[in-house]
Amino acid sequence: MSKLVLQARQLTKVFSSPSGPLEVLRGVDLEVAAGVSVSIRGASGSGKTTLLQLLGGLDVPDRGKVEVLDGDVMVSPARRLGKAQGFVFQNYQLMPELNALENVALAAKIAGKSDAQARQAAEELLQQVGLAERRTHLPAKLSGGECQRVALARALVNQPALLLADEPTGNLDERTAEEVMQLLLSLVAARGLALVLVTHSVEFASRTQQRYVLSGGVLVPA
Amino acid sequence: MVSILGVGLGVASLLVVQTVMNGFGEEHRLRIRESFGDCVIVGQRPLEQPEKLLQTLRADSAVSSATSYAEGPALLRQGDYSAVAAVRGIEVGDLHQPARNYVVLGAFDDLDDGRVILGLGLARQLRVRVGDHVELWSPAMAERAEKGKAPLPADFEVCAILRTGFTEVDDRAALIPLRRFQALWNLGPRAHGLILRLKDPAKAPDTADRLSIGRSGLRFVPWQELKKNFLEAIRFEKTMLFFLMFIITLVASFSIGSTLFSAVIRRTREVGVLVAMGAQRWQIIALFGLQGWLIGALGILLGFILTWLILFFREGILGAINHTFGDGDMVANIYQFSKVPLHYDAHDFIIAAAFTLLVTTLAGLVPALWAARRKPSEAMRDV
Ligand SMILES: Nc1ncnc2c1ncn2[C@@H]1O[C@H](COP(=O)(O)OP(=O)(O)OP(=O)(O)O)[C@@H](O)[C@H]1O
Ligand SMILES: [Mg+2]
């Protein structure tokens, strides 16, 4: 078996709600090997975003543990965000005052690249997602599909080994969704990335190597 | 942009008020010194040999000039109008004579044995102008008069009119040459007191203390003591104003703070994204702190420019206000200054700048700290 990039054990997350504690996750186990794509489906409100945030280190589980690995070495939390791992959010989450190029370059700068390096890396990535000629547009002037492609470029600009994507096509029409998904999967394949993809679509899920459904707070192979 | 303007206006209002108040204070102090002298020397009885004392005092290194005077009430009359005047005998030709800068009509140097300088209020009471004549009776003349005969008045031509801004001076003062005073009041060579101009007027109390050593019969009164109540009122006014302005600035700073605050809060989602992309807390805090600092710095700059502009065009602005509210020339009527006086105090500027910078930086920092401490998962849920 090839090397693991992500290992989650017994993840539990409980939110308090007015009608008492809400157990969203009740012991999720997940292992993702290098270069392997994984899909997670589930009903709305089943906890997919919550799980992905725990996997991505954007939130801490109440119990259980997540490790991002590089070989056998655990990646420190500081290196993990933005560097070892890229994240594509459900609602693009671009900076509204920054144009496409600056949005991508920002991620590179946060990772410690110089202005010139960051700019060059961002130009390259925008080229790869097919937005080179729209690089000076603000997010408000871009379509949903274009925004998501910018977000994808941003997630990949620091050459992570793992990409986490939360319904990257959830807000797009069928044709655009297909385009974006194809782009995402081809980039992931070309770079040999590991992918955890949250999606509603059975069709998109079928293109990944390992398929799970989140239900009742645990992952069930589908 | 709006927050920079807000900071600028706050800083400008504080500085304009402080600078004008300082100007009034300085002007009042100068006026006191120029009307009364830097240090007044009086005795229990008239000075027997004023010349001798004058000479030793003039030799003192702290004294720039010294002059003797005598004073007493007299009855003045012009036609059917009469008034009681505080007559002062002064040394003619003394260039450092107090009040000489406040002549509004006529010429101070025209004063001679047949002429008198009147305060503006006194001249009005007597209905006289420069060139008119007034009659004067001193108490001594009544003693000298022959029994049963009314004493003959001395005749003076009004050669100048002065306005110091101090009502008790302007409504009563009549200046005549000391020689004439000594004759009319039977003083002989004696004088009632001396007036000193000092090289460093601010140190007048120390100098007065030092000079009084060994001269026990005399009282040395520095100008700060002369109009103590008045000066204290000014100082109190300034303190109160500073207090009020401080509160205004605080309110202004608070609104600036809340503007910045809500700007950062509105960015909570973006802060969450930044954290998710691996930005360190200190980077985020530095980003917003710097933004607040920058707004503060630009606002202060704008405030300084605004202050300068407002003060540069102060006459026009005041004229417009007077015109609109129809109060007439307030400054001239109440304060009797022809121009709004200014006194730039670097201290005020530094305090205002430091305080503003502190508030704006904190206003950027505090919410940034708060936003950066939230978990990105929660921050990104806010829309
Ligand atoms: N911070 C929170 N506080 C309280 N409840 C929360 C919080 N975050 C999520 N939840 C609840 O947890 C449950 C799972 O939310 P989550 O966003 O993970 O669902 P999801 O599967 O991603 O849904 P969707 O498909 O609509 O995106 C929901 O019922 C939600 O209301
Ligand atoms: Mg979700």
Please outline the helices and strands.
The complex is a heterodimer of chains A (222) and B (383).
Chain A: E1 4-17, E2 20-33, E3 37-41, H1 48-55, E4 63-70, E5 73-74, H2 77-80, E6 85-88, H3 100-110, H4 115-128, H5 144-156, E7 162-166, H6 174-191, E8 194-198, H7 202-205, E9 210-215, E10 218-221
Parallel strand pairs in A: 3-8, 3-9, 6-7, 7-8
Antiparallel strand pairs in A: 1-2, 1-4, 4-5, 9-10
Helix pairs in contact in A: 3-4, 3-5, 4-5, 5-6
Chain B: H1 2-36, E1 39-47, H2 50-58, E2 63-78, E3 81-90, E4 103-106, E5 115-119, H3 120-126, E6 133-137, H4 139-144, E7 154-162, H5 167-170, E8 173-177, H6 178-184, E9 191-198, H7 204-212, E10 218-222, H8 223-226, H9 228-266, H10 268-276, H11 281-312, H12 314-325, H13 330-335, H14 346-373, H15 376-379
Parallel strand pairs in B: 3-8, 5-7
Antiparallel strand pairs in B: 1-9, 1-10, 2-3, 2-6, 2-9, 4-7, 5-8, 6-7
Helix pairs in contact in B: 1-9, 1-11, 1-14, 9-14, 11-14
Bound molecules: adenosine-5'-triphosphate and magnesium ion.
Question: Would you write up a description of this structure?
Answer:
The complex is a heterodimer of chains A (222) and B (383). Chain A has 222 residues and is of the alpha/beta class. Chain A has one domain: Rossmann fold, CATH 3.40.50. Chain A is 32% helix and 30% strand. In chain A, strands 6-7-8-3-9-10 form a 6-stranded mixed beta sheet. In chain A, helix 6 (174-191) links the parallel strand 7 (162-166) and strand 8. In chain A, helix 5 (144-156) packs parallel to helix 6. Chain A is globular and about 50 Å long. The model of chain A has no long low-confidence stretch (mean pLDDT 89). Chain B has 383 residues and is an alpha+beta fold. Chain B is elongated. In chain B, helix 1 (2-36) packs antiparallel against helix 14. Chain B is built from 15 helices and 10 strands. Chain B has a 6-stranded mixed beta barrel with strand order 2-3-8-5-7-6. The longest helix of chain B is centred in the middle third of the chain and has 39 residues, at 228-266. In chain B, a hairpin with a 2-residue loop joins strand 2 and strand 3. Helices cover 55% and strands 20% of the residues of chain B. The two termini of chain B are 24 Å apart. Chain B folds into 2 domains: 2-27 and 230-322 and 332-381, no CATH class; 45-216, no CATH class. The A-B interface holds A 50, 53, 56, 58-60, 78, 80-83, 87, 89, 93, 95, 106-107, 110-111, 154 and B 269-270, 273-280, 283, 375-378, 380.
